[in-house]
Amino acid sequence: MEEARDFGVDLYWLPLGAGGHSVRLNGRVFEALAARIEHRPPCDLYHSALVVRVPQGRFVVEMTPIPRGSPEERGVMMEGAVGSRWARRLRIFRYEVHRWRDGVIPDLAEAVAGPERLTSDPLLTLRIFDLVARVPPLTWDATRRMPARCGTRTRSLPG
């Protein structure tokens, strides 16, 4: 078995829309409306990313809007549309899950309270790494039940 120092999973919490204005503004509007409907105060929204270290290398695991460029270079595992079926025709409404070797988290400098080491256990790290390739097809359709926050999460973070 490889040495345990070659293994690890770190979790990063990034403010939704870090580094951009459109997603941040839309996220704030969405959360303000959701909070009003649910009779609660608005929460900060966060996006998560994992850095997985295995003997094969360092990989970024993340769900992001689909950028231009080669999906193979980013290690794309799955992609899908958010919002409705008609939206899948427009790249701005499509997201991907990638397991990107030597990948970059563009807004890592804005991460909050992290990284959190989830595990250094070699078997668990390899299991997490392998499970990314089994992510089911993504479709968040407004005509069906949408997953909570469509890839974002509200969370109280220390600090």
Question: What's the arrangement of secondary structure elements?
Answer:
Blueprint: E1 8-15, H1 22-37, E2 45-54, E3 57-65, E4 76-83, E5 94-101, E6 112-119, H2 122-132, E7 138-141, E8 152-154
Parallel strand pairs: 4-7
Antiparallel strand pairs: 1-2, 1-6, 2-3, 2-8, 3-5, 4-5
Can you walk through the features of this model?
- The chain has 159 residues and is of the alpha+beta class.
- Helices cover 17% and strands 36% of the residues.
- The protein contains two helices and eight strands.
- It has helices at residues 22-37, 122-132, and strands at 8-15, 45-54, 57-65, 76-83, 94-101, 112-119, 138-141, 152-154.
- Strands 1, 2, 3, 4, 5, 6, 7 and 8 form an eight-stranded mixed beta sheet that branches.
- A hairpin with a 2-residue loop joins strand 2 (45-54) and strand 3.
Number of helices: 2
Multimeric state: single chain
Q: How much strand? A: 35-45%
Report, as a whole number of angstroms, the end-to-end distance. 38 Å
H/E element order: EHEEEEEHEE
Computed Rg: 17 Å
Low-confidence stretches: 140-159
Provide the domain count: 1
Major sheet size, sense and barrel closure: 8 strands, mixed
